[in-house]
Backbone:
Protein backbone atom coordinates (compact mmCIF):
# COMPACT_ATOMS: atom_id res chain seq x y z
CA UNK A 1 0.00 0.00 0.00
CA UNK A 2 1.39 3.43 -0.88
CA UNK A 3 0.36 6.98 -1.64
CA UNK A 4 1.52 8.99 -4.65
CA UNK A 5 1.92 12.78 -4.58
CA UNK A 6 2.22 15.01 -7.64
CA UNK A 7 4.66 17.71 -6.55
CA UNK A 8 5.31 21.21 -7.88
CA UNK A 9 7.43 23.76 -5.97
CA UNK A 10 4.37 25.93 -5.26
CA UNK A 11 2.03 26.45 -2.33
CA UNK A 12 -0.33 23.96 -3.98
CA UNK A 13 2.37 21.34 -4.44
CA UNK A 14 3.53 21.70 -0.87
CA UNK A 15 -0.07 21.42 0.37
CA UNK A 16 -0.36 18.17 -1.60
CA UNK A 17 2.85 16.88 -0.01
CA UNK A 18 1.62 17.76 3.50
CA UNK A 19 -1.69 16.02 2.84
CA UNK A 20 0.12 12.99 1.43
CA UNK A 21 2.28 12.80 4.55
CA UNK A 22 -0.81 13.02 6.79
CA UNK A 23 -2.51 10.23 4.82
CA UNK A 24 0.64 8.07 4.89
CA UNK A 25 0.90 8.49 8.66
CA UNK A 26 -2.78 7.69 9.12
CA UNK A 27 -2.60 4.56 6.95
CA UNK A 28 0.93 3.61 8.07
CA UNK A 29 2.26 3.46 4.52
CA UNK A 30 4.96 5.00 2.37
CA UNK A 31 4.91 7.95 0.01
CA UNK A 32 6.08 8.33 -3.58
CA UNK A 33 6.63 11.95 -4.65
CA UNK A 34 6.77 12.60 -8.40
CA UNK A 35 7.84 15.88 -10.00
CA UNK A 36 9.23 17.32 -13.18
CA UNK A 37 13.03 16.87 -13.35
CA UNK A 38 13.58 20.63 -13.12
CA UNK A 39 11.77 20.70 -9.77
CA UNK A 40 13.91 17.93 -8.25
CA UNK A 41 16.03 20.15 -5.96
CA UNK A 42 12.98 21.70 -4.27
CA UNK A 43 11.16 18.34 -4.24
CA UNK A 44 14.09 16.60 -2.59
CA UNK A 45 14.39 19.34 0.05
CA UNK A 46 10.67 19.20 0.86
CA UNK A 47 10.67 15.37 0.81
CA UNK A 48 13.58 15.28 3.26
CA UNK A 49 11.66 17.60 5.59
CA UNK A 50 8.60 15.33 5.28
CA UNK A 51 10.63 12.30 6.37
CA UNK A 52 11.05 13.91 9.81
CA UNK A 53 7.42 12.90 10.44
CA UNK A 54 8.45 9.24 10.21
CA UNK A 55 7.08 8.53 6.73
CA UNK A 56 9.31 6.74 4.22
CA UNK A 57 9.47 9.04 1.19
CA UNK A 58 10.70 7.99 -2.25
CA UNK A 59 11.11 10.54 -5.04
CA UNK A 60 10.98 10.13 -8.79
CA UNK A 61 11.26 12.39 -11.83
CA UNK A 62 8.45 12.41 -14.36
CA UNK A 63 9.40 10.91 -17.71
CA UNK A 64 9.37 12.73 -21.02
CA UNK A 65 5.69 11.76 -21.30
CA UNK A 66 4.95 14.42 -18.67
CA UNK A 67 3.45 14.71 -15.21
CA UNK A 68 -0.09 13.69 -16.12
CA UNK A 69 1.04 10.46 -17.77
CA UNK A 70 3.46 9.70 -14.92
CA UNK A 71 0.80 10.22 -12.24
CA UNK A 72 -1.78 8.19 -14.14
CA UNK A 73 0.72 5.36 -14.69
CA UNK A 74 1.62 5.41 -10.99
CA UNK A 75 -2.07 5.12 -10.08
CA UNK A 76 -2.19 1.73 -11.85
CA UNK A 77 0.71 0.23 -9.88
CA UNK A 78 -0.44 -2.52 -7.56
CA UNK A 79 -0.64 -1.31 -3.99
CA UNK A 80 -1.14 2.39 -4.78
CA UNK A 81 -4.24 3.38 -2.86
CA UNK A 82 -4.37 7.16 -3.24
CA UNK A 83 -3.02 9.92 -5.48
CA UNK A 84 -2.73 13.46 -4.08
CA UNK A 85 -2.20 16.63 -6.08
CA UNK A 86 -2.60 20.34 -5.47
CA UNK A 87 -5.02 22.66 -7.22
CA UNK A 88 -4.64 26.39 -7.49
CA UNK A 89 -7.43 28.78 -6.76
CA UNK A 90 -9.14 30.17 -9.83
CA UNK A 91 -11.35 33.03 -10.88
CA UNK A 92 -15.03 32.28 -11.55
CA UNK A 93 -14.26 31.97 -15.27
CA UNK A 94 -11.21 29.81 -14.56
CA UNK A 95 -13.36 27.44 -12.53
CA UNK A 96 -15.16 26.36 -15.68
CA UNK A 97 -12.11 24.29 -16.62
CA UNK A 98 -9.51 22.60 -14.47
CA UNK A 99 -5.89 22.68 -15.50
CA UNK A 100 -5.05 20.14 -18.16
CA UNK A 101 -2.91 17.98 -15.86
CA UNK A 102 -5.48 18.02 -13.06
CA UNK A 103 -8.33 17.21 -15.38
CA UNK A 104 -6.50 14.39 -17.12
CA UNK A 105 -5.42 12.81 -13.82
CA UNK A 106 -8.90 13.06 -12.28
CA UNK A 107 -10.47 11.46 -15.32
CA UNK A 108 -7.92 8.71 -16.02
CA UNK A 109 -6.40 7.65 -12.67
CA UNK A 110 -7.21 4.13 -11.49
CA UNK A 111 -7.12 4.91 -7.77
CA UNK A 112 -8.94 7.61 -5.77
CA UNK A 113 -7.55 11.13 -6.30
CA UNK A 114 -7.51 13.85 -3.66
CA UNK A 115 -7.10 17.43 -4.90
CA UNK A 116 -6.03 19.88 -2.18
CA UNK A 117 -5.64 23.63 -1.99
CA UNK A 118 -3.20 25.51 0.23
CA UNK A 119 -4.53 27.05 3.41
CA UNK A 120 -5.56 30.68 3.08
CA UNK A 121 -5.98 32.90 6.14
CA UNK A 122 -9.21 34.80 6.64
CA UNK A 123 -8.86 38.54 6.17
CA UNK A 124 -10.13 40.88 8.78
Residues:
Amino acid sequence: MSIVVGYWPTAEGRAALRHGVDEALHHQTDLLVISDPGDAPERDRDAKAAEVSGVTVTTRNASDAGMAAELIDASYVEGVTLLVMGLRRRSPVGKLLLGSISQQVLLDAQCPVVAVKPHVSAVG
Observations:
- The mean pLDDT is 90.
